[in-house]
Amino acid sequence: MTTLFTAASLLDTDGRRDGWVLVDGDRITATGQTGVDAPPPATTTLDLGGRTLTPGFIDLHGHGGGGAAFDNGADEIAAALAVHRAHGTTRSVISLVANPLADVQASLELVASLAESDPLIVGAHLEGPFLAIGRRGAHSPEFLSEPDPEIVDRLLEAGRGAIRQVTIAPELPGAIDAIRRFVAAGVVVAVGHTEADEKVAREAFDAGATLVTHVFNAMPGIHHRDPGPIAAAFDDDRVSLELVVDGVHVHPSVVQMTFRAAPHRVVLVTDAMAAAGGDDGYYQLGSLNVEVRGGIAHLAGTETIAGSTLTQDAALRTAVTIAGVTETAAIEALTLTPACVLGRENEWGRLAPGFAADLVVLDAEWQVERVWAAGAEVPRGRSADPATD
User: Fold this and answer.
1) What is the span of the domain harbouring residue 361?
2) Which pLDDT score, from 0 to 100, does residue 387 have?
3) I need a labelling partner for 188 at 20 to 30 A (CA). Which of 6, 140, 279, 340 fits?
């Protein structure tokens, strides 16, 4: 069974062009340019009428959606993923907050099992417990710890090879050794929730860390006499930077600056909690109570931001229409760059033969109309754009 997408405006890291895409099963088998390459016959032909066709979005960092949290079992993981997939996210890393170690181990074992049966679940991201207590954000302080080698090994064992990412504050005792241990196990290490200065951040990058968790948030800012971890990341071409573009976490002008300072290294993530795709109200993030007001998530009774209510299509719209990021750069930050972070740049993130049939159809206002993940169309569920979009 083959499907031909015709009359499409193709948009990926190679830019925009009019063309067609042929899908066979879960792979793209051919592409061509309208008026230049004759499209082949197919079992099914879909005329997109000039709509934009992009690769599926990849989210390296999200905690839930649709009222469900990734820490709360298989049913809630499925419910949250359904919301994000309907908004264009075709490959997801399941992010876990700091919880009791036994609970984190159980969550890792569950994600590993789910990833074995669902190729759209990439694996797990441990955003705790190795965080600086003063930069913990929406993580319970009693569940934070130093990266003791025994704890590191217990987590790796529970993950059964499915831990894709871990966030570490590199100034913690034993952190640099832990970075090396995780990297040796094939885990992407991100610097985040940290008090690190520039020197320590560079040590972490030299030890193998290649990512920054939601840059600008939960870390020192840039100072002209104390540049900190952000400037160190900007200066290191080995390092990619997560960016939450919801109009709240990072000012649009700083979003634009980040894309200029680190071309091809920005990764748009949602950092979404359970309220993504949902309504204002009260939610849980791990063991903490969260209140969502006007689409902005705060720890209850405080002004501390507790994740976001973002979906990746909304991040795309905000990046392009408010922050002024070019459409090619924004799409790259949702597709090929996160694929590169995961080492899957030859499989995901482009409209090219041999790549996964992960496709998103967008209208002229950057709204998602239809989504295909691994060649199967994603059901359209409840749609609710964050108020901060």
Assistant:
1) 2-54+351-377
2) 32
3) 140
